[in-house]
Protein: GST-like protein
Organism: Azoarcus indigens
Amino acid sequence: MITLYTWSTPNGYKVSIALEELGLPYEVRPINITRDEQFAPEFLAINPNNKIPAIVDSDGPGGRPITLMESGAILIYLAEKSGRLLPQDARERYEVLQWLMFQMGGIGPMLGQAHHFLRFAPERLPYPMERYGKEARRLYSVLESRLANRDWLAGSSYSIADIATFPWIGRHEWQGISLEDYPAVNRWFQAIAARPAVERGRKVPQ
């Protein structure tokens, strides 16, 4: 059984969506980050970086439990455990991993900063608002170009690269972005949002 430690954030949704798509049995342990539960000793024993999500799989490699932090690593693990959402073909596999790393290194960190300075910062600071707003638009332009003539971000089918990126695009309004300005991204986003497993995963934790 997989235990998922999570909260209602884009990074949390990545893993709950993947688990729903893969049909793997799991139980949820909510970690309410608005109450600083990520700093509790019990959770720090699982993830010393005090971030969600994290998982504990009682049936890990070799039949022994495994604990994992970092959403990208968790997605790769779940895909390899199930044999789905990460192609076996070497070229397609590296294409998926490349776009997964694009999300981990660009989409997540930069759009997260846009969330903070455009929506949550106690002061409206022009420089970071302009900097991260501009970077958000640049990243959306990269996605728009990538998706202009293809259904999915990488490989020939839906993959963990799409799952990783989707929840961040779901917060586009927080980033000062209108999807009407990015029609290819909007088409891709709507196609993923309509998937039943994605709808279920976006409700975790209840």
In short: The chain has two domains: 2-85+198-203, 90-195. The mean pLDDT is 97. The helical segments are 10-22, 41-44, 71-82, 90-120, 126-147, 160-169, 183-193, 196-201. Strands lie at 2-6, 26-30, 54-57, 66-69.
